[in-house]
Structure formats: structure tokens, C-alpha cells
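ZP: hey, is the adenine complex queued? I don't see it on the tracker
AM: it wasn't, my bad. submitting now with these inputs:
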Amino acid sequence: MPKTELHLHIEGTLEPELMFALAQRNHVNLPYASIDELRAAYDFHNLQSFLDLYYAGAAVLLTEQDFYDLTWAYLQKVHSNHVVHTEIFFDPQTHTLRGVPFATVYQGIRQALDEAQAQWGLSSRLIMSFLRHLTEQEGFEILEQALPFLHGIDGFGLDSSEKGHPPAKFEQLFKRCQALNLPCVAHAGEEGPAEYVLDALHLLKVKRIDHGVRSLENDQLLKQLVADQTPLTVCPLSNIRLKVFPSLKQHPLKQMLDMGLMVMINSDDPAYFGGYVNDNFKACTTALNLSDQDIVQLARNSFIASWLSDAEKARQLAKIDQIWQAWKLTG
Ligand code: ADE
Ligand code: ZN
């Protein structure tokens, strides 16, 4: 089934094998003796415990070639998962604060995205994400550095530590982003409360909510999300690894789908959370007893919620319908 991925941090695709290879290439010391020891450290108890390791791991990324290799490895994987379009986040502040120029990060990622489009027709959008544990002023500074590259940046996002860093902190920065005429999204309602989802919608004027699972705690908000068909980019395996829900069987994805919310399946940081988008589909199908119809709806939603053109959406949705009809005939 063709599908898109709409919530993916490129730094979160850094597999331990590549992290070790880049550490060696760039003469960076890692505080782990082996790949197995590193993997054993992927035992998170909340979002922050993951982010600490994720930012430390990103320290091996120094050159344009590193960013290219990282992005290319991800694109190869999702190409084999029948992902035909991906909208990926990159966190420039994670790198510029270590002295890596914005251009190095951008150009390495951009080259890989362009090659995937040329080789496989795998289309993409690139979303520049602001780190919410930093100040709004630092957000303005990185936006300034991004201006020469805006022709290749398709939108803005907001990620990192959610609790204590509400959307309101970035209201002025997102006003400036809106003025640049690029769509905005924000992580909200992952660990933070449903009010952060409301504030991301009303103060930051975002087009999509990343995660949004805690919206279930506010009935009024749920009604609004269903009525507006606001996309929620749900990441099931991520939510389990970061202890947002105790087990996949208790994940609300199926419930959200049945309520008519515009949800789809994404991998978030697949190198850290146990799988890419198809791994998420398989695990959810087993744990939540998803029907074939549910899976088709999730794939359809991934296109509807994407930033593809209306014509391309229609083309892909027709393809899914065709596959679905043929599947029903073979029974
Ligand atoms: N950065 C990378 N993954 C993230 C997540 N799941 N939540 C917030 N920030 C992130
Ligand atoms: Zn995320």
C-alpha cells in the first residue's frame, strides 16, 4: 500500500551502526564501548530521557556528507516500506550550537532528498523545526540563518521538551513564520496537556498537530479537531517507548480513528523507538486488531493530511482504492 510519512525527525533515524561509523570517521568519542552497549541505553522513561541521548548522538554529525549519509539511509529504508512521499523535520539548532554551519546541515539533507525524487520519484517536504527548550530569541536567530535557504524549506515546526515550554512562548516567532507564507506545525499533546494543542492551533495557527494524543482529555477540543479534520500525526511505537501509554494494546489510535479524527501512523525517531513506518503498522495491527479497512483509512489519511498538491493526492488516493478493490476480490 502506498503511504506517506508526516512525522519523522531525520536526526532520529541515526542507527547505532551509523553513529559508530561516523564517530570513527570524525574522531568523535562516544561514551559507549559497543553498538550493543549503546542500544542497551535506549531504555527511556520519558521524553526528556530520550532527548538527552538523541542530542548527544547527533554530535557525530559534522559534515555535509554525514547529513547526506543519514538522510539517504532513511530514504532507502522507507522506499522499501512503500513510502512514496515523506515530510521530514530537521533541527538546525542542534547542529549550529555545536559550530556546524546551517548550510552544511541543509545541503547534505537536500541532496539526498533530491536524489530520492530523481531515482525513485519519492517526493518530500522539508520542515525546519525550532527547539522549544531554547528561547524565542534563539528561534529568531536560527530563522535569520535559514533565510538564504527558504527556497528549499517547506514549513516550520516546534519540537523538543514539551512540558514547561508552551506554544505561547513562540507566538511572535510563529507570526513571523506565517508572514513568510510557509505552513507551520507543532508538537503538542504528546506529554503536555490538551491546552497546548488548543494553543498551538489558536496562537501558532498550525496546520497539523504532531502527536496530539492527549487531545482525548478534552471533549470540546476533540469536537473541533473532528469538525476541522485537523491532522494529528500519531507515532504509536514512540508513545510506548516514551511511556506516554503503558502498552500498545492501550494506545488510543484505533479509538481516534473510529471517532473520525484525521490520524495516520508515523515513526517519529525510528532508530530509537524500535521501527520504521511499516513496523509501526504491523505492531498496531496486531496489538489493536486493526481491520483491513482501518489500514486503508490510515494510508488514505496519510495522503489527505500531506502537503502534496490536490492533483497528486487524488492520484494516490485512486491508486489506494484500486489496490483495495483488487484485494477484496482476492478475498
Ligand atoms: N524531537 C525528536 N523527537 C521528538 C519527540 N517525540 N517529541 C518532541 N521532540 C522531539
Ligand atoms: Zn516528533
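AM: back. Residues 7, 9, 159, 187, 210, 268 surround zinc ion (ligand 2) (CB under 6 Å).
ZP: great, adding it to the tracker
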